[in-house]
């Protein structure tokens, strides 16, 4: 296939066009695609894993995988769905690795290495919500954690989450309900049963995944 549009403006191009450029080894196209999806990938991994270090490492894995696996892109999925499938896969693997380490006493149960700064009352409640979410997540299966992050916090339709995770819509619905039950159980322990909606509103403000594009690009270049 002859490559004819090497000098096209990347910011005006579709995701598919950027993937095509990546097949030709164009790292600028990878940087552009990364910029488009960095927010949702790093935010999702952070909400699933409740850990800044793990989130950063999985985010790098996702975009390095885009570079390595671009020829295997399956056009049954949108590029966003394809990237989020990788996000969920690597997050699930990280959870399983972490749980093995916990069995052998290498790490603790709750993974809260970073939480929102509390500068005012609103921030303080957000910090409390995040810590509660981390505790609830330790009682969730990987699918429940992913479903809660994508369906409840990101607001995605169940059908789309089913496509991303590879599970049926029924399983996604069950996982979402069970994840919500575990969150409500944590709220009940603090006498805050009626605060579920407010809790999620505060939790959506937590988006402390990787945001430094320069740092991410350096880490990706090293990984590829």
Count of DSSP strands: 0
Strand content: under 5%
> Runs with pLDDT <50, length 5+?
1-11
Average pLDDT over all residues: 86
User: Which structural class best describes the helix and strand composition?
Assistant: mainly alpha
Largest sheet: none
Helix content: 55-70%
Explain how this protein is built.
- The chain has 224 residues and is an all-alpha fold.
- The chain has helices at residues 15-23, 27-49, 52-69, 79-103, 121-137, 142-153, 158-165, 169-189, 196-203, 213-223.
- The radius of gyration is 19 Å and the shape is globular.
Key attributes of the depicted protein:
about 220 residues; mainly alpha; 10 helices; about 70% helix
List strands and helices in order, with pairings:
Blueprint lengths: L14 H9 L3 H23 L2 H18 L9 H25 L17 H17 L4 H12 L4 H8 L3 H21 L6 H8 L9 H11 L1
Helix pairs in contact: 1-2, 2-3, 2-4, 2-6, 3-4, 3-10, 4-7, 5-8, 5-9, 6-8, 7-8
